[in-house]
Amino acid sequence: MLWLVAIGFFMQALDGTIVNTALPTMARSLGESPLRMQSVVVAYTLTMAMLIPASGWVADRFGTRRVYITAISLFVAGSAACALAQNLTQLVAARVLQGMGGAMLLPVGRLAVLRAYPRERFLKAMSFVAIPGLIGPLIGPTLGGWLVEYVSWHWIFLINLPVGLIGLVASRIYMPDGRMPAVTRFDTAGYLLLSFGMVAISLSLDGVSELGLRQAAVLVLLVFGMASLVAYWLHAARRPDPLFTPRLFDIQSVTVGLLGNLFARLGSSCMPFLIPLLLQVSMGYSPAQAGMMMLPVAIAGMASKSLATRWIGRAGYRKVLVTNTMLVGLAMASFALSAPEQPLWLRIIQLAAFGAVNSMQFTAMNSVSLKDLDGPLASSGNSLLSMVQMLAMSMGVAAAGAVLAAYTGYFTAVGQTQTLFAFRATFATMGLMTIASAWIFWQLAPDTPRAAPVEHPVDVG
Predict the structure, then answer these.
(1) 236 φ/ψ angles, rounded to the nearest 5 degrees
(2) What is the model's pLDDT at position 326?
(3) Is 339 helix (H, G, I), strand (E, B) or coil?
(4) Given 224, 242, 260, which residue is the final one in a domain?
């Protein structure tokens, strides 16, 4: 069963990174601008953010085996539909279907392991199944670039089919049923409010650059989205069994950790989308070369995870998160200095530096969000953190796409047609946004208890 869950982690993690390198080639094939392809990423991550809150209840109601098989089936069907897409609209719709499967793969697989292994063996089991999730982002960009350059972009989706079919057969044999005898009533009203709020806010950001929505429509979507989220928390405050209890925010470290995760990731989560675009559109890199340039980010990220533990043990969460958030923002803004004549060794150091500080940021943010939770709040907080992570990824890519489109329009209007200037301004802007989020972590109590960081199984960044 552990190998089965590991396959699910690998499929989801690989697909979350393999697409970014292929976006320029996909854009040319579909007759679109490579600078307007962020909806391919947003559709997938936003769908996952929407469905993660319901995944636990669905698994309890229908059983982990049935839901896991359904998740793999949807993921495989979505992958096949992506490969067959003839235009951007079809591709985005297929990515939604793929995201529906991916949203259930991670939490349902983790739930199956939790129920199958006693507490003293759970951490070891989860460490095993999380390893493929770490390998996915390591090989995803390089594999995607190689497939695009030497085969076809369609194969970045078709490679999921044999892996998924093996997973389907193995699920019928090894996955336990895991159905709960008594399941509480699902908070449908709360789920609809929460989902509508997330979709409306993300679409308002994406609509600025890609959907062609006018300012009034964007404003209406944004206001309705925010009102829906506020309505959800008012609804949750008076319901005995909400999706996410407002009592989570009675704990200061949880409040700061979740809000910090959201706003800090708005900036950093756009980098896997922006960097391959910059390298291919403005630097003349081939897809394979652009994919290989993402290796320093992944390798440095994996190597630096242990550094966060020692740093937090010495300085505490507040100092580490404030300082490291600013370092992440500065590392992002440094890409505003990118130029075709920049030496290769310097670009590799720049990418590795970003990967190292970004990985430490994820570890510290996840740990401070979960470390003070126990009992029934632990499960709710863990699910909410997973949702916030995916929502931030969706909004971050949508925001970066909107900023890039705005700067492209500005520089074109003043007679500067090189996209490099728009990319430089976008990196600087998103870096400043990340630096600003350091004020959220400053609100942590100076005497926050120091504990070993908690690795979050979903976060393979």
Answers:
(1) -65, -30
(2) 95
(3) coil
(4) 242
Residue 178: give its domain's CATH number.
Answer: 1.20.1250.20
Residues 356 and 400 in one domain: yes
- 255 and 160 together in one domain: no
Same domain flag for 138 and 97: yes
Distance CA 245, CA 297 (A): 36
CB crowding 9-28: b at 16 or more within 10 Å, else e: bbbbbbbbbbbbbbbbbbbe
pLDDT value for 461: 46
Identify which of 399, 63, 418 has the alpha carbon closest to the alpha carbon of residue 210: 399
Q: Are 26 and 75 in contact (CB under 8 A)?
A: no
- In percent, the amount of the chain with pLDDT more than 70 equals 89
Q: What pLDDT sits at residue 353?
A: 94
How much is the pLDDT for 209?
58
What is the per-residue pLDDT for 343? 92
Angle between helix axes 160-174 and 2-30 (nearest 10 degrees) is 160
Write down the residue that tokens 């594999």 correspond to.
Answer: 143
The pLDDT of residue 249 is 83
Residue pair 2/123 in contact (Cβ under 8 Å)? The answer is no
Q: Say yes or no: 372 and 306 in one domain.
A: yes
Whether 179 and 216 share a structural domain: no
Rounded to whole angstroms, how far apart are CA atoms 196 and 49? 11
The overall average pLDDT reported for the chain is 83
- For 115, 152, 243, the CA distances from 186, given in Å and listed in that order, are 21, 43, 8
Q: Domain count of the chain?
A: 3
Contact 225, 200 (CB under 8 A): yes
If one compares 16 and 391, the residue with the highest pLDDT of the two is 391
